[in-house]
Amino acid sequence: MEMSLNGSTLPFNFLLKKKSANYEMSILNAEEKILVDDVVVQNDSIFIHLPVFESSFFLSIKNEKELSGEWINYYKGSDYKI
To answer: Phi and psi dihedrals of 75, rounded to 5?
Structure first.
């Protein structure tokens, strides 16, 4: 995934897996892997809360390889969105 910020593109690497009835996300940063288990998939939407980063993704599924939506950084304020 890529995030657009002030005309720049920021890469964001992750894996999203279904585990039983739930989903989990692994954020990949070089050798580091951060597990996120607060993931809700509902119809064509994905809601991901990242407690480590005090932020959330609100995404819509465009197709098998494409998502679009917003990332909210609560640390900077609920109106800080990318």
So the answer is: -60, -35
Contacts of 41 (CB under 8 A, 6+ apart): 23
Please tell me the distance from the alpha carbon of residue 22 to that of residue 64, in angstroms, as a whole number.
18
Of 56, 25, 21, 13, residue with least CA distance to 42: 21
**Which residue do the tokens 């679009």 mark?**
68
Integer Cα distance of 67 and 3 in angstroms: 11
Pull the structure tokens for residue 27.
């954020």
Burial (Cβ within 10 Å: 0-12, 13-18, ≥19) of residue 48: buried
pLDDT tens digits for range 30-66 = 888 989 989 999 999 999 998 878 899 999 999 888 8
Give me the count of residues in the chain.
Answer: 82
